[in-house]
Design goal:
Number of domains: 2
Number of helices: 15
CATH superfamily of the largest domain: NAD(P)-binding Rossmann-like Domain
CATH architecture of the largest domain: 3-Layer(aba) Sandwich
CATH class of the largest domain: Alpha Beta
Catalytic activity: sn-glycerol 3-phosphate + NADP(+) = dihydroxyacetone phosphate + NADPH + H(+); sn-glycerol 3-phosphate + NAD(+) = dihydroxyacetone phosphate + NADH + H(+)
Strand content: 5-15%
Number of strands: 8
Shape: globular
GO molecular function: glycerol-3-phosphate dehydrogenase (NAD+) activity; glycerol-3-phosphate dehydrogenase (NADP+) activity; NAD binding
Largest sheet: 8 strands, mixed
CATH topology of the largest domain: Rossmann fold
Mean pLDDT: 97
GO cellular component, one term: cytosol
Distance between the termini: 45 Å
Order of helices and strands: EHEHEHEHEHEHEHEHHHHHHHH
Low-confidence stretches: none
Helix content: 40-55%
Organism: Dictyobacter arantiisoli
Bound molecules: nicotinamide-adenine-dinucleotide, SN-glycerol-3-phosphate
Pfam families: NAD_Gly3P_dh_C, NAD_Gly3P_dh_N
Radius of gyration: 19 Å
């Protein structure tokens, strides 16, 4: 029997631990706060981030990072993206180079502009060759409820993707494999920008035609940057591209979508961030993506307007007007 560690006990880390433990896989869930770890271990649920889903006996919660990673076949990395590097430094002394590391976080690190698996490779060089990324349309609550879900796990080493797939797959969680790590990670990260935009659209009451346009042109922006960064174009038609984009833009369960709705309602970014514990990765990803877009000299007009709304108090109505009034162009012009 394999055993798994999960670094990060927010909604998604907890959901992945539940999926594994329901299959009987011994799973150690790590929280960075000892009091929270103790509370979850005693209450046998994550009342803060994923209430009402009782923990099977196979889940053990700890704040001891050595316990969470030692002698594990696979470790899932599920912290907010901007916290991943610090946590890798904490676990580095204890992890075996044999352990498979799967990033399930969706973001790009500010300043370095690195993807999550790039950070893992940089901080844990002995683990290179055993690193993968998990992504897809995976709203945690639906997954925890056991609703049918598909995901994709990508690794440059297909045997590693395959081993991760076998461990993660369940009756209600179908996992595909891919070798396009760049595409799978950038698809998962960049869709959060567009999900905020879709939330703004909903909050403004602009309707379904406008939302379909945001999704479609958003996918063009994601693909354009992704391909410039080395991704395979077809990945953006897949689960980590179109799939996750549709789920996040359409669902009120998406925290990024919710954040967009609140922006449209007139709340400032700082007010929204202060009032929520959950991470909306699209905020930092908007900044990082625009820097990457400048590096690769690609246009991201939706991300650009969203950054003005997020960080420079541009009125959301005005941002939409700016997008509508851009110079005319052919639909396929500069597509990828
Ligand atoms: N929730 C989902 O549906 C979902 C699905 C797929 C991917 N993801 C991704 O998973 C990642 C984690 O999101 P989530 O939804 O599980 O989190 P969350 O928003 O539910 O909770 C945030 C978590 O981060 C933890 N945290 C805060 N600071 C930390 C630190 N310094 N070190 C370690 N942990 C810290 C908090 O304790 C909490 O457990 C994100 O990148 C997100 O995009 C989320
Ligand atoms: O709640 P969000 O917006 O972070 O989205 C969660 C997942 O990424 C959906 O696949």
């Amino acid at each position: 029997m394999v055993s798994v560690g999960v670094i990060g006990s927010g909604a998604w880390g907890t959901t992945l631990a539940l999926l594994l433990a329901r299959k009987g896989i011994p799973t150690t869930l790590w929280d960075h706060q000892p009091a929270r770890a103790q509370q979850m271990q005693q209450q046998r649920e994550n009342s803060l981030f994923l209430p009402h889903f009782p923990f099977p006996d196979a889940i053990q919660v700890t704040a001891n990072i050595a316990e969470a990673v030692q002698q594990k076949d696979l470790v899932l990395l599920v912290t907010p993206s901007q916290k991943l590097r610090d946590n890798l430094r904490l676990l580095a002394p204890y992890i075996s180079p044999q352990t498979i590391l799967v990033s399930a976080s969706k973001g790009i690190e500010l300043n370095t502009l690195q993807r999550m698996t790039e950070i893992v490779a940089a901080e844990l060089p002995r683990s290179r060759g055993r690193i993968a990324a998990l992504s897809g349309p995976n709203l945690s609550r639906e997954v925890a409820e056991g609703k049918p879900t598909a995901a994709v796990v990508a690794s440059e080493q297909l045997d590693i993707a395959d081993q991760a797939r076998m461990i993660l797959t369940g009756n209600t969680f179908r996992v595909y494999t891919s070798h396009d790590v760049i595409g799978v990670e950038l698809g998962g990260a960049l869709k959060n920008i567009i999900a905020i935009g879709a939330g703004v659209n909903d909050g403004l009451g602009y309707g379904e035609n406008a939302k379909a346009a945001i999704i479609t042109r958003g996918l063009v922006e994601i693909s354009r940057l992704g391909v410039a960064a080395g991704a395979h174009a077809l990945t953006f038609s897949g689960l980590a591209g179109m799939g996750d984009l549709v789920a996040s833009c359409a669902s009120s369960l998406s925290r990024n979508q919710q954040l967009g709705q609140r922006l449209a309602g007139g709340e400032s970014l700082s007010t929204i961030l202060q009032s929520t514990r959950s991470v909306a990765e699209g905020v930092t990803t908007t900044q990082a993506a625009l820097q990457l877009a400048a590096r690769y000299q690609v246009e991201m007009p939706i991300a650009k307007q969203l950054s003005l709304v997020l960080f420079e108090d541009l009125n959301p109505h005005q941002a939409v007007t700016e997008l509508m009034m851009r110079d005319p162009k052919g639909e396929l012009e500069g597509f990828i």
